[in-house]
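In the design runs reported in the main text, the only information available to the sequence generator was the tokenized backbone. The following block is the verbatim input for one such run; it is reproduced so that readers can re-run the procedure and compare outputs position by position.
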């Protein structure tokens, strides 16, 4: 299952232990305000970087697995 742009659902699924892999895309744009990516999680996530890819646009895709 893929969850796009819903921090609330990610926090709920993460707290329930239902997410094994996290893929995070970083776009090289600085915004003056916003929301924390993992806002609302109750426990510390220990993640291990398993893959990364840099696109010509400068976007970076990071893939982490839960330890």
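Verbatim output:
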């Amino acid at each position: 299952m893929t969850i796009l742009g819903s921090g609330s659902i990610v926090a709920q699924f993460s707290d329930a232990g239902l997410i094994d892999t996290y893929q995070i895309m970083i776009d090289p744009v600085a915004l003056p305000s916003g929301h924390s990516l993992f806002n609302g999680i109750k426990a510390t996530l220990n993640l291990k970087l398993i893959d990364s890819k840099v696109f010509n646009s400068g976007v970076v895709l990071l893939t982490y697995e839960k330890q």
